[in-house]
Amino acid sequence: MSAAEAVESHVRAFFEGHHVDVVDYDIGPERRAVVSDLHVLVVGPGPRSDGWAYVTAGCWAAMEKRGHGLEFVMTSHVRDQRFIDLMAMIGYYHCGGHQLDLEHSMPIGESWVPGSACDHLLISLPYLHGPDLEHCPVPGGQARILWALPVTTAEIEYRRRHGHEALEQLFDEVGINPIDPFRASVA
Asked: I need a labelling partner for 172 at 20 to 30 A (CA). Which of 108, 128, 139, 147 fits?
């Protein structure tokens, strides 16, 4: 079993009772050379969540070091090709030299969805799903599935000034809905 297949199996087991599609995303031959086995798993609503989850499968195999590596999950309110595109972008960004990790961020380059103030992704623990999704055994090691949380530029600036933990505390205090693309910025 490949690492990407192990991630898929883990996601299917975690989201038992949900429909899961495997999207073999065409990132082009040059990018495919960087992350050769990239897929995006699209998890529909079900018993665990009424939202949609998008999970990369293939980043671990491209970037693992001593048996450890990352995959990413994003959660949204609907199924949309835009989110599949974003997950492929995250996978390539991570494997193409930027090496994302917990508490990192990346600019999207535009709004998460048209009209949204969220234009960055914050890499965080997968709070919506917990450690049972986060810790994924793969052949030869362990993949850690981290959350790609859409955030605003102001929130990224707040994090730079006050730290990651302070921003997450602010999210908790305000009670953001992390799958609402039109939520107000907390900073």
From this structure: 108
Q: Spell out the residues 6+ positions from residue 166 whose beta carbon is closer than 8 angstroms to its own.
A: 158, 159
Measured distance CA(40)–CA(163) in Å, rounded: 31
77 alpha-carbon distance from chain centroid: 14
- CA dihedral sign, ordered 48, 53, 101, 56: positive
pLDDT tens digits for 53-87?
999 998 887 777 898 999 999 999 999 999 999 99
Supply 24's token pair.
């073999």
Q: Which of 144-148, 154-158, 178-182 has the lowest mean pLDDT?
A: 178-182
Query: Which amino acid, residue 78?
Result: V
CA atoms within 13 Å, Cβ hemisphere of 102: 10
Strand pairing partners for 42? 21, 54
The answer for 88, left when phi > 0, alpha when psi is -120 to 50, beta otherwise, is alpha
Query: In the prediction, which pLDDT does 93 show?
Result: 84
CB 122 within 8 A of CB 105: yes
Prediction pTM value: 0.93
Going by C-alpha positions, the residue among 160, 119, 184, 129 that lies closest to residue 15 is: 129
Say how many C-beta atoms besides its own lie within 10 A of residue 137's C-beta: 13
